[in-house]
Amino acid sequence: MELSNKTARQIYKEVKSNPARKKFGFGNKAALINIDLQKAYTRQDLFKTAYETDPKQIDYVNEIAGLVRNKNWPVIWTYVAYHDSGDDAGVWGTRTDTEDSLQNIKFGSTRSELDERLDIRKQDHIVDKRMPSVFFGTHIEMLLKHYEVDTLLLTGGSTSGCVRATAVDSLSRSFRTIVIEECVADKHESYHFANLTDLALKYADIESVSYIKELLRSKN
Q1: Distances from the Cα of 112 to the Cαs of 102, 162, 182, in angstroms?
Q2: pLDDT in tens, 108-126
Q3: Which structural domain, as residue segments, surrounds residue 34?
């Protein structure tokens, strides 16, 4: 194992700036999947489980959603919520049992609500999920096949959790996978940048908001 005194942020910057780094690229048609932009994770003024990496994250997500929607490509929003018993969280919900614990995000609770700043439209798809990957136990893969999508654009949180799990599952299903850098967030910069590094090296392309906006505007 290679040892280093560099921070996760420094290592990520080196990987990102490497001109020899190959990418999967953009295919023919994309879906935008916005992962768990719900109040439990976005409203730092309400919940200590919330986090922010870029203060303009939600603004950027709304911009990208508008561009994707203008092409009649699918925009998908996911959120995590559980029944009163919490049994549908499985073993994931057994490690702690506090008001902030995952399995205590109940259907109909404020913690389960998508952030009111999000620009969600009638034609968008809203999907509840139980596990880290958006693919597990949901109908999202069916939606993507129906729309004949070959590329996924990922936003949301957390970078080290549900974004990473979704990116790995996306690649495993042979989708070109792009994580939009300013649109994903985590609780600590170490987890955030370490996982961006690993995703960039193995599972996904990490692209900027400006690059994605330009690309979407140029696509016929």
Answers
A1: 10, 15, 23
A2: 999 999 999 999 999 999 9
A3: 28-218
